[in-house]
Design a protein that fits this description.
alpha+beta, Alpha-D-Glucose-1,6-Bisphosphate, Chain A, domain 4, 3 helices
């Protein structure tokens, strides 16, 4: 059993068959975030993006049964085409923070989940990203988050392949 100070991180690396600029836009433009945010079966009816140091985006994922779950992403470092750092918080539709436990989410989800996404060009044709989420209190919650993240990135793969990301 882990002591109270122990936390668990999610680290997922994915290579997309899409140019870096296109993958960056998938993380930063509202209409593109809505195409992939949320695990399989979820939609994303809202993405208000304010991607700049100190900015806060508000995103919503909707479950198959119509339940909306809002998050804010408050940015620290933003280096276009290279790095995004933000803190994810669960919130209401106005962006006011909510305790994950109050929302009925599993134990071990912290009130603030730091995220770091790095972007690397792969031969001018592809893009490798690494997503790191930090601070989960228990391994099973970390593992559930990893599954959700991988499903989001699967949806991103489809959006990058099938979507109009050419402009």
């Amino acid at each position: 059993m882990a002591d109270e100070a122990t936390t668990f991180d999610v680290v997922v690396t994915r290579v997309f068959d899409a140019p870096l600029e296109r993958v960056w836009r998938a993380w930063t433009e509202p209409e593109l975030v809505r195409r992939w945010w949320g695990p399989v079966g979820f939609s994303a009816p809202l993405a208000r993006m304010d991607v700049r140091p100190g900015g806060t985006s508000l995103v919503c994922m909707r479950s198959p049964d119509g339940h909306d779950l809002y998050n804010t992403w408050t940015y620290g470092q933003v280096v276009p085409g290279e790095r995004l750092e933000f803190v994810l918080r669960f919130s209401d539709e106005s962006g006011d923070p909510l305790d994950p436990a109050r929302l009925g989410l599993p134990p071990g989800i912290p009130a603030e989940v730091p995220h770091v996404i790095t972007f690397t060009d792969v031969n001018g044709r592809g893009t490798r990203i690494t997503v790191t989420e930090s601070g989960y209190g228990i391994e099973s919650t970390r593992d559930g988050s990893r599954i959700g993240l991988e499903q989001c990135l699967d949806k991103m793969t489809t959006a990058l392949t099938d979507g109009d990301f050419t402009r």
